[in-house]
Amino acid sequence: MGALRRAAGAVAAVLALVGPAACGGAAPAAGPSAEKSLILATTTSTQDSGLLDELLPAFTRDTGWQVKTLAVGSGQALELGRRGEADVLLVHSPAAEKKFVAEGSAGRRRLVMHNDFVLLGPPADPAGIRGVPTREAMTRIAGAQAVFVSRGDDSGTDAREKDLWAAAGVTPGGAWYQSTGQGMGATLRVADDKAGYTLSDRATYLSQRDSLRLEILDEGDPNLLNVYHVIEMTTRAGARVQPDGAAAFANWIVSAPAQQLIGEFGRAGFGQPLFTPDAGKPEDALGG
User: Which residues are the signal sequence here (predicted)?
Assistant: First the structure.
């Protein structure tokens, strides 16, 4: 697939190999061949929540395809697809996804699952947002100039946060509004250290809750719905794209066995599933 593609530009540091690696000079072991290795670009929430650790080994076992994962913000994942540096995308930024697919380099876009976003903050809640409507919560945070830690990384979470500020008629800025430029897990730790507010997907928060003082202060608003789609790339994005690999992953993740894994993920550890499987619903279901 070429050295440049394997490096995947500036995000090579987040490249993680799932499955057995080839050993230089050694005879190949039984199992998937080097030719059956695809690149998945996905949001950090699927990695930080632990969902990929559950899904990818099962995918490799069922299909023979190995997966190299680029866990970045949804915006960056779409850009990797646009440049032909990923075969398949698993993202959660519906408005950006629709624009991306309309450009013509992508193939099918299918609904996979959803969870929701939650507004988190310190137990003392200096802005007084606990239990109030989300629009009012954003207004109160800005009015109090309470520390708010944003991902600021063009991710699906970052896009939704900006939508929430806009709906509240607020343009955030100043010393109280701080951006990490990092993924969800890192942003949660920064917000916790600063006793600030932040927006998180529920799955990542629950998976890291035991190490955080942050609490859920606002949840359940329809504007906090968090919808994920899988997008297959085509060779229109670049000659190195593997449509067969893209289709294999996309078909598998919407299949009944994968959807069952998604629906059960988190139940044992947290007493509730962290994602709700949605494959087979209309493409515009859940506002996605």
Answer: 1-29
